[in-house]
Amino acid sequence: MVLEANTDHWNKERGPRLEKITYVNDMDPSEALNQVCDSEGEIDIVSEVSPADAQRVIDSDHAHLVTIDAMRIVSGLINRDRDFMDDVRVRKAPNLAVDKARLISDVFQGYAHPVAAMSPPYSGAPTDIEPYPHDPEEAKRRLEEAGWPQDRALVLATTSDVAPVADYLAESFRESLGIEVDLVSVPDEGLAAAQKALVEKKIPQHFDVLAHA
Q: Which residues contact 70 (CB under 8 A, 6 or more apart)?
């Protein structure tokens, strides 16, 4: 897609400052990152750089990292139709089991903030509530109080874009809750159909928690 400047716009003070912008949407993100970081090539800007690649951009002689507070929220979607998941004690247990500060530092390399709602505070979300604290003992107590069977594995589903988050969640649930976790990946080629089925609520979902952006 190509955007060309309107040089006849009445507001000359506002711009334009560029004659033409070309959006390249068919290049693999890793190749685009290579071109920006390793050479002075045809690509000037790469958007949505992953936290795992941030340091590579910082260390590059050809690139500069720009960060913003995005509207992207990564959450654990709880399936209340599964057995035991409708119990509020069970739903609170995974929230208490996760060390969010470590999740942000180790998985997101510091490029994230904990939130207590499905919208960040700067977009109008409540500012007087806090995320659940990290309290593994209380998390395990709530799960046991709800009668979670020892042989019942928690099924954690994930999409490929947040797989590192899901890996961390699975580790946290195993360590803090003392239960087994079955990690299930939704294949990229089936993602659209899976999302449609989830939204329409026509097909029973076979996960307890879905790590989803």
A: none
